[in-house]
Amino acid sequence: MNILSESKMRSIELLIHIFVWGLIFAFPFLLFSRDGWSDGWWYHALRMFVMQLSFVLVFYINYLFIIPKFLFKGRYSKYILVNIFIIVSMLLLMHIWQEFCMHYFSDIDIEKPEGIGPPKWIFTVRDAITMILVIGLSVALKMSRKWVHTENARREAEKNRTEAELKNLRNQINPHFLLNTLNNIYALIAFDTDRAQEAVQELSRLLRYVLYDNQQEFVDLNKEADFIRNYIELMKIRLSSNVRLDTDIDIDASNTARIAPLIFISLIENSFKHGISPMSPSFVSISLSESDGEVTCQTVNSNFPKNIEDKSGSGIGLQQVEKRLELIYPGKYTWEHGIRNNGKEYYSRLVIKTR
Fold first, then answer.
1. What is the per-residue pLDDT across 162-215, written as a single tens digit (0 to 9) for each?
2. CA atoms of 106 and 100, how far apart (whole Å)
């Protein structure tokens, strides 16, 4: 749910104030007929205007002073006592004003029949109930404003926490990625020095991307695709003839989609790490595509689980993927992965909505 900004909340609040008070001031005048305004109309207008003004005064005394000082600080008994004092004081002043008006205007022969209409205490009760409703309105508006402010502050704190966690995860990805790649190069040095040198060059290009573009929140999908292609080329250097590698990186240079950097690399690393056996025939299949705002990365590989002595990568890659997906794309991704085909292959299909 989207929370209103402070500026929007102030604008809406101002419109509510104007509408409500305009309605309150106009309503009593709508109840009079044309005949009721024939004699001393300005007397009735002045009397009702002052009454409505007293309601405005009660509202803003609460809204600006009493609610922040007492209600928001948990001093409820004092808040109630102060409002009782204000209501009694206002009713007394309104009574004095009514008596003054009736006495003053009687000198200019405005006819006021005696003994007609309900007793005065009924009007006093009416005015007291109206003031209580006005106080309730002030509390409702002030609480709404406080809730928006509190919720915005909470959202900002959550955003800062999420950004800090994402930064920490990105910092973990760099050494994790580097560790896995160096392990590959180390294995290559033992039997082919020239190919190991080529691997170091490939690694330097990959690290350039990791060190610079990884610091951005989102990168161009075509750059991420180039990074994956380079990584696969690096992995191909150490593949033996009994490994079948199928790749389909269907992202062209004109693609304008944006994606979180290195979101797929752990899945691809996992395919090479667990999908290759030096002794048995094995395969790795990798595909990456984008259509209608959905990016799909699918990997399928033969399943050769590492033994407990193999600690390369510490197994944190897939955990990082899940954490980053929840932080960056909550509710906007689907990820199916697991062992299938009687334990012979591992399957992963990650779909991310980028818009």
1. 667 656 655 655 566 677 677 777 777 777 777 778 778 777 877 777 777 666
2. 10
| The amino acid at 290 | E
Q: DSSP of 246-264, one letter per residue? A: EEEEE--TT---EE-TTSS
> CA 303, CA 201: separation in Å to the nearest integer?
30
With left for phi above 0 and alpha for psi between -120 and 50, is residue 17 left, alpha or beta? alpha
Taken in order of first residue, the domains within the chain and their CATH numbers are 6-155 (no CATH), 164-353 (3.30.565.10)
Contact between 39 and 111 under an 8 Å Cβ cutoff? The reply is: yes
CA-based end-to-end distance of the chain: 17
Residue 307, φ and ψ in degrees, nearest 5: -80, 175
pTM for the complete prediction? Answer: 0.53
Question: What is 187-236 written as a DSSP string?
Answer: HHHTT-HHHHHHHHHHHHHHHHHHHHGGGSS-EEHHHHHHHHHHHHHHHH
Largest CA-CA distance found in the chain, in angstroms, rounded: 119
Question: Tell me, what amino acid is at 209?
Answer: Y
